Structures are given as C-alpha cells and as structure tokens.
Amino acid sequence: CSAHVAANASSFSSCLASHGVSNFSLPASPSYNTTLNFSIRNLRFTLPDVTRPAAIVLPVSKEDLRRAILCARDSSFAIRVRSGGHSYEGLSYTTENHIRFVVIDLMNLDRVQVDPVSATTWAETGATLGELYYAVGRSSRSLAFSGGSCSTIGLGGVVSGGGFGLLSRRFGLAADNVLDAVLINPNGRVLDRHSMGKDVFWAIRGGGGGSWGVVYAWKLRLVPAPHNVTVFIIDRTGPIEYIAGLVHTWQLVGPNLPDEFYLSLYFPTGSSDGNVSISFEGQVLGTKQHTLSVLSQSFPMLDVSESDLSEMSWVESTAKFANVDKVSDLLNRQPGTNSYTKSKSDYVKAPISRQDMVEIVRYMSARPPGSIILDPYGGAMARIESGTTPFPHRAGILYGIQYTVYWGQSDQAKADEYIRWLRSLYAYMTPHVSKGPRGAYVNYLDLDLGANNWTHPMGGSSMEAVLHARSLWGAAYFGNNFDQLVKAKMTIDPENVFNNAQSIPPLY
Ligand code: FDA
Asked: How close are the terminal C-alpha atoms of the chain, in Å?
C-alpha cells in the first residue's frame, strides 16, 4: 500500500500544477479550513484529534479528476473522495491510523443533464440529490428520480451505497436505476459499464463508496410521476401505550400498502412530560381521494383527514421532505446547522408484538436528543432479487430502522453518555431485529461494526482481512453478496488504492 512510503505534499502540488490543475488548497492556504469544513456534516470529525488532509483538490473537469488521482498516487498519498460529505463516519475526509492523505472534493463537478424524451439523465457525482431533483423538476413535471430525502446528500455517496427514498417502494433504490457510469480506475483509466466489466458495474451500484475508484458520472433512469403527488406529515402525541399501538399497527400496514404509497415513521427521542410524539410522513403517487380511501381502510387508527393532505408536484414534495422553503432552495448545498451525531441501523423481518413495542417505545422515549426513523420496505424493494445489486435487504424485510443521537457544542461533555445510550438501545433491540447476520445499511455507516486495519491487516494475510471484514460489517451490509464484491475489488483495484475503514478488501 502506497501509504507506507513517506507522502510528499510538495511533489503532489507540483504534480498538479504541472498538469494544469490549479484548484487545490494546502493547510497553509487561506481557503483550506473553509474548503475542508464546507462539506463536513458531522462535527465529530472536526475535533482536534482527527487527522486532516495534506491537501484538498477540487477538480473542475474529468481530466482534473484523473490527474488528481494519479498525482496522489505518485506522491504516495492515500486518497479520500468526497461528494456531499454526509458519511456518518466521516470516511470521505478522514483516515485511520494517521495515514497521510489528500481529499478529492467533487463539489464543482455538479452538472446534471436531463433528457426528458428518453427519461434519463447524466449527472456528475459531485451534484447533490437536491441539484438532481431541481434539474428533473425543471425539465418535466411528469418525471422523478428515486433517491433519498435529504437534498444536500451527494450523488457520489448515496448512489454508491444504494439510496433509499420516498419512491423506493415503487421504483427501487437510486442504485437500481443506474443505467451506466463513468468510473476512473486507480490507474486513471476512464471506464464505462462495458469497459469496466459486469462484476465492477454490479459492485459500484450499492457496494459502498470509496472502494472501486472514483465514479465521475452516473447515467440514471428517471421514473414517471403524476401531475400531482399527495403528501402529508401527521403528528401524534400521547401516552406510551397509545403510541406503541400506532407503531405496532404501522408495522403491519406500512410495508403492505400499494407500491405508490410511502408511509414512514419518525420518532423524536427525548420527550420528558410522560407523553411521546411521533410523526407519520407520507407520499402517495396519486390523489388525496385515493390516499384517503386507502388509508382510512388500511389504517383507521391513524385517523387521517382530508385537511392533513396536500397535493403538489413531485419536485415540490422533494423540497417539503428536504425541509427547505422552496424548490430553488434544493440547489443550496449548505444545510441550516450541523451537529455532532452518531447513528446505527437495523432491519426488522417479523412484526414486533404489541407488548414488546410498549417497552421499546418506553426505552426510546428516554433521553437523549435524537431520532428514530422507520422506513417501510415491501413493494418493488421486495420484488428485486437480493443479488441484482450488492444491496441485499429485499424480500422478507418489513422495515429499516435508523437510530441517531445528536448534540451541539454546548453538550459536548455528554457525547460519550449519548453514544453509550445509543449502543444500549441497539443492544436492547437485538431480539426484535434481523439476525444471522444482523443487517445494517451501508449508507448508514457504523464503525461500531468493525473496521479494516490496513497497517496491520490481521497479521498480514489478505484472507484474514477478508474474513474479518466479512464476519463483522461485510455480512451485515451485503449479506451473501460480500464475496462477489471481493471478486470485483480484485478486478478493479487489486492494490487497494481506494480503501477506507470499511472498504471492500482485496484477496491476493
Ligand atoms: P460522502 O461524500 O461523505 O461520501 C460517502 C462515501 O462515498 C465515502 O466513502 C466517499 O469516499 C464515497 N464517495 C463519494 N463520492 C464518490 C464517488 N464519486 N466515487 C466513489 N466513491 C465516492 N441515505 C439514503 O439512502 N436515504 C436517505 O434519505 C438518506 N438521508 C440522509 C440524511 C442525512 C442528513 C444524512 C447525513 C445522511 C442520509 N443518508 C440517506 C445517508 C447517505 O446516503 C450516505 O451518508 C451517503 O454515503 C452520503 O453520500 P455523500 O456523497 O453525501 O457523502
């Protein structure tokens, strides 16, 4: 691994300059801190003990990107690639074991070209979901894209790891809608789906970012949207037993609704007055009347009324769920505020009993501040075979859970306490969630599951490193698809140039 040789910052900057790449920042540059911090979404990775990059390069073209990869390799730096910077464990702008590295930040590669006639788009991977949604919405009211809800997520990371969103029960993940890609391999070669080969094209669509090279652009399938969709956010507050009853019923309803329905559950933790609050967030590819008639029959306890519902264009709905004021705000890469966060994820295969749900809601409603989100699967998610892409959580999954704690600067002293609470909740959930292996979502990266150790890879044997990765996070994120990912890694990056704490290890 090149990081064993002393990395050299001046040879890196002269290499860039001699190839006409001028947009980069070194620690002494006035722009360095602003550029580094611009896309840090988790303040845990701004703390003083976190190793910072020796340089940040901001390519403005595919050729700049290729040069940045080659110069980093020539100067013996590890490479971290950053798109939207939302990695839960900061893997796009940090390294383990103080390995010297540079960040290639794709934020200037954000062009999105929509072709409404073929219902496809080519998007550079530095674009955010918001930029993509905006471009799709401008080109046609009857097209949409199936991605996530947060508009500032980068296409580089979200599509690489899957990309679950409000349309996934109808059209699958973002990764299920990739038609082609431009990948720059560790030797700077530019590959498309044919020249990269079947195994690699399969791996980049859900096998997680940072393992394969740099995806410069995605060709994505757009999906049909009705003139208006129906959206709602319904808040319910009450005693634990009442809320547990709603959540218990939701488990039976949410994953079994018709495909055009998305009904998720958002559970802010940290209520203190004995009552608990939850929100049901919904989007339906259909009218208010259709929404009312289906929900009043399938989920009478929710008691939806027409005044809870609004009709709007699909792109307006993306602004609503991204929590921004207007459609043009989807172009804003900077969210309101950042916080310190830690997240974990789970999958549920069998409904949790009502009695257990009461105890779970009681546990969740205890402090600290954070949120728990239950995402309904079923529909197209269940119909796509679990080996079609590396994302294995398909038929048999009722819903995914994301647990998060977050805090601000003033609560920094309580960080360990909050994270301990999150881990204890995760332990508490063990009997109720998937097992053998306990599943997790690679886009909700969680280093508690384990990490690669490239400096001492389990005594040096690549087989041991692969077994280590498979038994800890590999099986949780990818199930039976993990070995196929190792095979793809050996094809595209046998020297492990693109690595991180949970990247796919090569076997050599
Ligand atoms: P970042 O830039 O941090 O990249 C993540 C990983 O991908 C890193 O390993 C990075 O090196 C690699 N990478 C980035 N660009 C690459 C490229 N061009 N080629 C190769 N590798 C590349 N998920 C979801 O499915 N649905 C959702 O609704 C949400 N919502 C959500 C909200 C919020 C507030 C957060 C913080 C996160 C989510 N997520 C999510 C999770 C999100 O999908 C996940 O964190 C993605 O990896 C983020 O992608 P970014 O490009 O922003 O991150």
From this structure: 13
